[in-house]
Amino acid sequence: MTLMLMVLCSIASGLSFGHTPTGVMATLCFFRFWLGFGIGGDYPLSATIMSEYANKKTRGAFIAAVFAMQGFGILAGGIVTLIISSAFRAGFPAPSYQSNPSASTVPQADFVWRIILMLGALPALLTYYWRMKMPETARYTALVAKNAKQAAADMSKVLQTEIVDEQEKLDEMVTSSGNSFGLFSREFARRHGLHLLGTASTWFLLDIAFYSQNLFQKDIFTSINWIPKAKTMSALEEVFRISRAQTLIALCGTVPGYWFTVALIDVVGRFAIQLLGFFMMTVFMLGLAVPYHHWTTPGNHIGFVVMYAFTFFFANFGPNSTTFIVPAEIFPARLRSTCHGISAAAGKAGAIIGAFGFLYAAQDKHKPETGYKPGIGVRNSLFVLAGVNMLGFILTFLVPESKGKSLEEMSGEAEDAEEGTGAGAGRAVRPSETQMV
After folding, report:
1. Are the CB atoms for 224 and 301 separated by under 8 Å?
2. What local confidence, expressed as pLDDT, does residue 181 receive?
3. Conformational region of residue 315, where left means phi above 0, alpha means psi within -120 to 50, and beta covers everything else
4. Which residues lie closer than 8 Å to 392 by C-beta, 6 or more apart?
5. Which helix (H) or strand (E) holds 333?
6. Which H helix or E strand runs over 19?
7. Which region holds residue 177: left if phi is over 0, alpha if psi is between -120 and 50, else beta?
8. Quick check: pTM over 0.90?
9. What digits encode the pLDDT tens for the residues 123-144?
10. Distance (Å, rounded) from C-alpha 319 to C-alpha 267?
């Protein structure tokens, strides 16, 4: 359902209708809201499904690989934009904005953003058949739906081997008093309250920095003279140049960062990678901010771009990956997706703050853009983002290390079963140590 909602809303976003700019934006916002609803469901689903199907030795790499596909999506989005904007730019040449404002945006440019948004639905649509064929995870079926027979049948199908259900042991485990607390209970707050605070706050802080970097690359690239001022280009030329710069950053920094995480997360652990990522993002932000006037001097923009790419590398070989992975590992099965969803929602709240905050804060003190009030400037905004990253570094200490541990060990479900129902039941609820994985 979440996948189909994403597909339909991506297509509908490109078809946003209205006779006025306000009408188009209103319908676009409506469809993007429901697209976000679908994505908000798919984030915890994809992470939880992967965590519950993987074994504890390679679980981090498997979840990281799911998230790393986002890097290829970013790269593909840039390439698609380059191709479409190039085709329209060649087919419909236009003067720069400063030469002729009304003619600089040709009517056909309206098709460019619509085509790009609608093509985003294609990869998701191609996976729909396989998503329909996927069974629920065995942990959900056994521990939440309380159907050991169906869980065993589903895992037998996935693993292509015979698995025998143990309904009696399952019944003992799911009725254990220590295994029945709710999300808003004192027991959850005692066991996992700080964990949820840690996963939600670090994701929140990460997205303030990460999305402000992503959404306003064009402003930063313009400020260091890597791409020309907007008024010196036509609309299609501006789209082409911005997408080219963003694609280069994705190729050199974003994508490698994701796959470094895949390769190393089960070696060095989630905790170390997240600490390293936040720390290095802080260092590179300061490296951009302190000598900012040097970077804006003509001829020095290559150094700035390299430093900027490293901030993306360590975001992805760091908290942008680990904040997605850890919430899918440390909470009880019946609350795992919910807690992951809460953490992801906190991240998107940070994204909103980062987007609007950087937009207004980065305005020049003396010459803000038309319609905006003076801000603190790009340099001071980078100092603020460095502080945000350092706070994320500190709050990472609230999040436990899950490398090499089963999901039941991390959530405390295994200990509950052993205390309440004996060693036999304890063994029965350690799926990562049985054929359930």
Report:
1. yes
2. 77
3. alpha
4. 201, 202, 205, 206, 209, 278, 319
5. none
6. none
7. alpha
8. no
9. 989 999 988 888 888 777 777 7
10. 16
Neighbours of 397 (CB within 10 A): 12
Which residues of the chain fall below pLDDT 50? 177, 421-437
What's the pLDDT at 434? Answer: 37
Distance of CA 237 to the CA centre of its chain: 29
* C-alpha torsion sign, points 395, 401, 407, 411: negative
- Give dist(CA 432, CA 437) in Å, integer: 5
Q: Cα-flanking dihedrals φ and ψ of residue 436, to 5°?
A: -60, -25
The answer to whether 408 and 414 are in contact (CB under 8 A) is yes
Q: Hunting for tokens 């900027």 — which residue is that?
A: 308
Phi, psi of 406 (to 5 degrees): -75, 160
Q: How far apart are CA 116 and CA 127, in angstroms?
A: 19
Q: How many residues appear in the chain?
A: 437
Residue 420: left (phi > 0), alpha (psi -120 to 50), or beta?
A: alpha
Q: Give the integer Cα–Cα distance in Å for 429 and 149.
A: 14
Spatial distance between the Cα atoms of 217 and 355, rounded to a whole number of angstroms: 11
* Gap between the terminal Cα atoms of the chain: 26
Instruction: Write out pLDDT tens, residues 21-39.
Output: 899 999 999 999 999 999 9
CB-based contact 95:103 (threshold 8 Å): yes
Please choose, from the candidates 160, 150, 148, 196, the residue with its C-alpha nearest in 3D space to the C-alpha of residue 398.
196
Q: Who contacts 219 (Cβ-Cβ below 8 Å, separation ≥6)? A: 362, 378
> What is the model's pLDDT at position 245?
87
**Alpha carbon distances (Å) from 196 to 108, 175, 191, 204:** 48, 24, 10, 12
**Nearest-CA neighbor of 206 among 45, 361, 309, 348?**
348
CA angle 189, 270, 124 (to 5 degrees): 90
pLDDT at 172: 57
Report the pLDDT value the prediction gives residue 425, as an integer from 0 to 100: 40
Cα–Cα dist 148/174, whole Å: 11
Q: What is the pLDDT of residue 177?
A: 47
* Cβ 131 vs Cβ 121: under 8 Å: no
Number of Cβ atoms within 10 Å of the Cβ of 164: 9
Compute the radius of gyration of the chain from its Cα atoms.
24
